[in-house]
C-alpha cells in the first residue's frame, strides 16, 4: 500500500509542478507586475499548485520512510530530511509570490519604484528557493533513496541507476547556476535535470502500477 501511495504522490508532483512554468509567466514577462500588469489569477493558481506540490513531496517521504529505514536507517533519515526540506523551500517560494500578490493588491498610493524593487526582490527569493528546493534537494533525494532502491532490488535497478547518474549531473548544473555560468532557465540546465526527472517519473509509475518487486528484502519487509 505504501508503494502505491508513494507512486501516486510522485506523479502528483509532476502534475502540480509543470503547469507553474506557464502560470508564473505573467510575473516574469512583466517587470511591473506588482503595479497591475499581467494576470494575477494565473499566479494565484500557480501558488495553489505549489502548495499541493509541497504536500505531495512530504507525503512521498512519509510513505517511503518505513521501507527505506529497514534497509538503511541513515539513508532513510537522509531521504526524509531532504524531502521535507524540499517541501519547506517550495512553501517558502509560494509564500514569496503570495506576498508579491498582496503588494500588488495593496499598491494604491505607494511609490511605484519602491513597489517594483520589492516585487523583484520577492521574485528573487522565489528563484533562490527554487534552486535550492526544487533542484538541489532532488539531488540528495536521488542519492539517498536511489541507493536504497538499488541495493534492495525493490524496483528494477535501471530506475535508481538513472537517478544515481543524474544526481551528480544536476549538482554540477546547480553549482554552475549558483556561480552565474548560466541561468536557471538555460537549455543546459534543463538537460541536466532530465535524468532526475526521468528517475522520479519512472519510480512513480512503477510504484503506482507494480508496487515493490518480490525479493528477499520485500519478504523481510512483509513480516
Question: What is the overall number of helices?
Answer: 9
Shape: elongated
| Rg on CA atoms, Å | 19 Å
Largest sheet: none
Structural class: mainly alpha
Order of helices and strands: HHHHHHHHH
Estimate nothing, just give the exact number of structural domains.
1
> Segments where pLDDT lies below 50 for 5+ residues?
217-223
Count of β-strands:
0
Structure description:
Keywords: Membrane, Transmembrane, Transmembrane helix. This is DUF4386 domain-containing protein. The chain crosses the membrane at residues 7-27, 47-68, 80-103, 123-146, 158-182, 188-209. InterPro entries: DUF4386 (IPR025495). It comes from Paractinoplanes tereljensis. The protein is mainly alpha-helical and 223 residues long. It has one domain. It has helices at 2-17, 20-23, 25-29, 40-69, 73-105, 112-152, 158-178, 187-209, 216-222. Helix 1 (2-17) runs antiparallel to helix 4 (40-69) and helix 1 (2-17) packs antiparallel against helix 8 (187-209). The longest helix is centred in the middle third of the chain and has 41 residues, at 112-152. The model is unreliable at 217-223 (pLDDT under 50).
